[in-house]
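Hi P.,

Sorry for the delay on this. The queue was packed all week, but I finally got your sequence through. Input first:
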Amino acid sequence: MYNSAFPKIEYYLYNYKEISDRINKLNTQNSDLDYNHFNYGLWIRTKLNRGNSLENQVVNKINNECIIKKLNLWKKLIQEVLKKYKETDSLKYKFICLKYIKKLSDTEIEEILKIDKYKQKDIRANILHYIFLLCLKKNILREVK
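Then the structure:
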């Protein structure tokens, strides 16, 4: 479970800044769907595989809503983790900001925080374990086997 969960957790940490943009884009796509303009010409194009049928549009909207829900869960979880570490452990908070949000390398983090690469690995593992436990508690990683 760890092998599949940790890369997923790191993916959302690295892409934390883009989550809001992705949610807005999906919301825009959902609002752009117009079920009232489904006419005979569009129906013919769908029969010729040249367009989206109403059914495909509905399925896409449902899929987008599921993705939006998942992204919102991850966004709230990361915000909760950042808030907790900002209040209780400034080193881990700074590490998350530098490593995942600003996407700095290990050597740059070593220069800024004055911690070696081994300590960085320990901090990283500690953070990932904490987030993993929160994910299990909130049932966010249910699709992970």
